[in-house]
Write a structure and sequence with these properties.
Macrophage Migration Inhibitory Factor; alpha/beta; 30% helix; 25% strand; two-stranded antiparallel ribbon
C-alpha cells in the first residue's frame, strides 16, 4: 500500500497531471515491488514552498509503505521521482526532498479494516 504525497509550488493548471500520476505510480510499484493496484499518488500544486530562502520551483514528498523500503530502494525511488518532477514540472532535483516511512500494516486502514 505505498502512498506518495507530493506537494509543489508549481501551478498544475494546464498540466497533464494524469501522465505524471501514471509515471510515478508505475515507478513506485516497480521499485518497491508491490502491485500497482495498491499504489496511491497524491499530487498537490500551488502550495507555498520556500526552499533555500527562495520560492523558485520546489517540491516535497512523503512516501509511506508497509515494507519494501530500505536504503537502496529509497535511493532508487528518490532518483525516479525527482527525474519525473524535473522533466514534467521543471522542479530541479536539488530542490526536492522525499521522506520515507516504513510502517506496520496495523497502522493503515483499508477496505473497512487494516492491513
Amino acid at each position: 500500500m505505498p502512498c506518495l504525497n507530493l506537494s509543489t509550488n508549481i501551478s498544475l493548471d494546464g498540466v497533464d497531471t494524469s501522465s505524471i500520476l501514471s509515471e510515478i505510480s508505475t515507478a513506485v510499484a516497480k521499485i518497491i515491488k508491490k502491485p500497482e493496484a495498491y499504489v496511491m499518488i497524491v499530487l498537490k500544486g500551488s502550495i507555498p514552498i520556500s526552499f533555500g530562502g527562495t520560492e523558485q520551483p520546489a517540491a516535497f514528498g512523503e512516501l509511506v509503505s508497509i515494507g519494501g523500503l530500505n536504503p537502496d530502494t529509497n535511493k532508487k525511488l528518490s532518483a525516479a521521482v525527482s527525474a519525473i518532477l524535473e522533466s514534467k514540472l521543471s522542479v530541479p532535483k536539488n530542490r526536492f526532498y522525499l521522506k520515507f516511512y516504513d510502517s506496520k500494516g496495523a497502522n493503515f486502514g483499508w477496505n473497512g479494516s487494516t492491513f
